[in-house]
Amino acid sequence: MKFMHLADAHLDSPFQGLSFLPSNEFNNIKQSTQKSFIKAIDTALDQKVDLVLIAGDTFDSVHPSPQSQLFFSREVKRLTDQEIQVVMILGNHDYLNPDEMILPQTPYFKLLGPDEQVETVEFKTKSDFTYTVAGFSYQHNHIEVDKISEFPNKGDNFTFGLMHAGAKTTAAYQNVYAPFTTAEIKDLNYNYFALGHIHLRQTLSDKPPIVYSGNLQGRHINEQGAKGVYVGTVDESTKEISLNFVETAPIIWQMATLNLDQVISQTVLTKQIVEVLTKKNKQQTLFGLTIQGAQYLSEQELELVNDSDYWLQLANSLRFDSRPVKVYLTNNEKLQLKTADKEAFDQAENETFELDKIYSLANDLSKKSDYVADLLKQPEFIEEVKELAQVKLGQKLKDMDDETNPN
Q: Do residues 94 and 58 lie in contact, with contact meaning Cβ atoms separated by under 8 Å?
C-alpha cells in the first residue's frame, strides 16, 4: 500500500509582518498555503496512494473562513472520488466543533476522535490489505495530559498512529500539546506514527518510524527551506516502509548573511547584498538578511537598510519574484568594560535572559496571538530576541562609556 502523511497546512495563515508588500504580491503569498495543499493532493492522486493522513492544524484558527472550508472540502473530494481514504484529526489551532465544520460526507473521509478521545478505525485497500488508524482530535487549544496511554495495543493489522502533539520538556508551561516521550510511542510498536504540530520536518525514530512531516508552507523566516509531505510505500509482506519527501511549497524562506569588515559606500553595499541573495535564489524565496558588522554602516546607510522602499526596489535584481523582507543588524564590535562593570553586565545579562522571565513577559501577548505563541516555541526566535537585546544593551553601555570617558 501507499500512504501520504501531511500536517499543518494552516489554511488562512495571515503571514503577519508582510503587509508592507504591494497588495498583489501579498495576496500571492497568502494564497501559497492553498497552492501547497493543492500540490499535496495532486501528488496523492499522481502516486495513487491508498491513504492520506492529515495530522492537525489544517486551518490556522478556530474561525476558518467559509472559503477555506469549501476549498478544503473540494480538494478532499478529489481524493475520495478516487476512493482514496482520508483520515484527519484536528489540532491546537483548528479545534473546531465538527458539527460546525464543512466536511466531506463520504465513507472515504473520517474525522478521528472528534470528542478528544482516542478512536481506532479499520480500513482495507483495494487490494484487500487491512490496516488500522488510531488517533484523536483537539477540542481545546491545550491538552496537558499525556494521551499515549489511551492508545490501544497494536493488533495483527498494520497500524498507524496519528497525533498532533509536542515532546515533553523540562519546562512545564510548554507541555500543553498532548506531551509525550518518544520512548512511550516506541513502546506501542505501531508500524508508523504520523505526527503534526512541529513545523520542522524530522524523524524521532526509524524503527518504528515516528515522524513529523513538518508544515506544507513556511509562514515566516523561522520556517526555512523546503516544505511538503511524506509519501510512504509499505511492503505488504515484510511491513517495511520506504519514505519519500515531496516538496509542495511554492515559496520558501531563506536566511543570508553579509559580513562587513570595513566602511563601504551605499553603491558597494547594495551590490554586495544582491550578490549574497542571488547565490541562494533558486526558486521564489522570501529572504531574511543578516548584516554582520553593522558598526561599519553610516547613519545614511542605516536609514537606507531600514527603508522598506529600498528593499522593494532591490527585489527587481532577483529572480523568480523573490525579495528580501527582513533585515537583521549585528554589531561585531566587542564592548570594552572595566572588570567590575563587566561582572555587573554579565550578571544583568544572565538575569534578563532567563527563559522563565522571557516567557512571563510575553505571556499575555501569546494568549492573544497564536502567531506569538508559535514564535515562543521556537528556540531560534528566543535566540534572536536575546541577540537583539544584547546588541542594544551593548550599544547603550558603549554610548555611556564614550560620554564618561571622552579620551
A: yes
Cβ atoms 98, 136 nearer than 8 A: no
Across the strands, what pairs with 234?
241
Amino acid in the structure at residue 201: R
Q: What are 157-184's pLDDT values in tens digits? A: 999 999 999 999 988 888 999 999 999 9
Q: Vertex 15, ends 14 and 17: CA angle to 5°? A: 120
SS3 state of residue 333: coil
- Residue 195, all three cell numbers: 505526527
Which residue matches cell numbers 474525522?
Answer: 111
Q: 232: number of CA atoms within 13 Å, CB side?
A: 22
* Nearest C-alpha neighbor of 139 from the set 161, 160, 117: 117
Residue with cell 553603491: 267
Cα 301 from Cα 305, distance rounded (Å): 6
Query: What's the pTM?
Result: 0.83
The crossing angle, in degrees rounded to 10, of helices 355-368 and 379-404 is: 120
Q: What phi, psi does 299 have (nearest 5°)?
A: -60, -40
Give the type of residue at 66: P
